[in-house]
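Input for the complex:
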Amino acid sequence: MAEQTLPIPGALVAGRSRSAALLEWLHSWVVTVDHKKLGILYIVYALVFLLIAGVEAMAIRIQLAVPHNHFLSPELYNEFFTMHGTTMVFLVGMTFIFGFGNYFIPLMIGARDMAFPRLNAFSFWMTAFGGLLLYFSFIGGFGLYGMGSAPDISWWAYAPLTAKAFSPGHSTDYWALALIVTGFGTLGAAINILATAFSMRCRGMTLLRMPLFVWLMIVASGDTLIVITPLTAAQVMLLIDRYLGGHFFDTQAGGSATVWMHFFWIFGHPEVYVLILPAFGVASEVIQVFSRKAIFGYPAMVAASVGIAFVSLSVWAHHMFTIGMTSASNAFFALSTMMVGIPTGIKIFNWVATMWGGKIRFATPMLFCTAFLFQFLCAGLTGIMLAVAPWDWQLHNSYFVIAHFHYTLTGSFVFCFFAAIYYWYPKIIGRMLDEKLGKWHFWLFFIGFHTTFDTMHFVGILGMPRSIYTFEPDRGWNTLNMIVSVGGAIQAIAVLILVWNIINSYLHGPLAGNDPWDAWTLEWSIPSPPPPYNFATEPVVRSRRPLWDIKHPNDPDWKYER
Amino acid sequence: MSSIPIFVDEPWRLPSRGRVAMLSLIIGESAIFTIFVVAYVYYIGRSTYGPTPQVLDTPWFNTVCLLSSSVSILFAERAIEQGRIRNFAIWWAVTISLGVIFLVGTAIEWKRLIYSDGLSIRSNLFGTTFYSLVGLHATHVVVGLIMLSLVMIFTIFGFVEQRHTERIRVLSLYWHFVDAVWVVVFTVVYLIGK
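Predicted:
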């Protein structure tokens, strides 16, 4: 009789309590090695930290809204802008790209999972642990001002601010250790993505038939390999200095603070390309689907992406024009920085040419990508302005620089990843996001973005330096700073609308079906949400738009490609 | 998916995922070493006080041991490829021993530097860069030895067979990398830096 009382696998077991079921559900998320679940974990993690870093940004803007404000103390202000920068780059940006990469690369290339599912889980949990370690410093970090001191050295952590003498306690070590830990996670994720994209493609998915999103994730992951590691190396040196009494960045013993700057920016500059390249990938998918045209100049897009990755490795010292390099170095880094404009220009023209003559549908993802095109162009233009060394001498460390990189990271990266959320949410969840709320989100965010960051350029030109916790009322920055802060509040409201939309549509959104956007890549050929095994039979592709071939058997792409 | 036509005639071959991943890891590790090597080279002669790099003795014996372990692991690879597990085990053990000799040699060198020459990681800038660069490499040797020893244990208990050739080859890629890095470190520290 004993056999009969055993629960049959898969059967509903009577009497199991609700909390046990909840525990089991949570447990399934912790032990999962499924690329889709890990992708969702990455994305949710990124969204949570987007909110946290957004709160920090709002606190900074409240502090700077009026002169002589006392909303934040100078110490807390330093901690907030350090944590805002560090969080946005490492815990929001990197996790967004690896989240979508994890979820969609196997689906787009017709694979069952990533190449190394367990490495994948390991990478995510390393990243997650690094983030928690960083934020634990708010409670447990002992710093210059006693307990509960988060890192206050800014996200670039210049020496000698990080030396034991100027940064006693452990707050700086939380910064270094947390980023070393997330760095290992990032390295693992990048290796996994490269191995997946090269070795797990389904039959017929040649390298030049891969969707551009996959291509750009490959380029970004390749860049990650040689970009994150120098930061890890430099942080190990920093820890050797702080704990073993080393002298790498100790100028009194012959060390050099400039070497830290070089090492940091060897990481720091290509890092923004690591972030922006997957955003280009999202734009390339969204723009072609919503323009109802195949992407213009696919091989040129691939070549330009690889070109950007290469050029990005030789531009780092444009962050250091003001430290007094030789004029030869200044000229080299100014010219190499301007060179970035060539491959990015190719990409912008290709996107515009894709839209040209297309039957454009301005659904929310397309709205975000259209705004991205314009904003990225502006960001590139101010980038070229700052590449001119004398111009940079004038505006270095001012709000003009802040405006420039928020144009690239918010105006381009965040806009593209909002597009990605609206575009792929139906695939991940199986329900559509609400279009009306999406439009509200877009327009509020768009208006808020321009209110904040357009104005910030002017504050910078008027001479307001970055990283100051307050300012005198007679500098002529009062009105502009107030406008910047109001724009920040509008963006915050827009992000809250997104959060509400995500939660509400999860419960009540209309069902999406397999292919709500009439798209062309493989992930739309399977049910939404995808079954655990992804593809019932391994797909075979003959062109860059396998779903187009299925939908139009009389006019397939493979007849015309090449 | 049934409506996607299947073209079985096209040959379809993909690179080994282990190899792609190991090569990616090696690229990433190379970047770490590049940063430490650049720091070492930049800081040569910038210490404001002694001891100077003249206290170093060039570790020829160590170097020969480590580099020949790259040859012995090649023999091990060939042996497992042909299914001669016994030969494989012998060459694998030789590789591990050569790696251990290298580590012991480094330990003896460091002991002399610390106790007779007074060079520690905190004594001056040269000490900091020397111990961190050579130590970073030694750390990689340790990690490599741990992985090699795991394989050795599996071999002794008879779990390693000819079908594991690809995995063994991926692992030996890492060991070759550790050896190749030593060529760079050796040249920079003992030949150029002295």
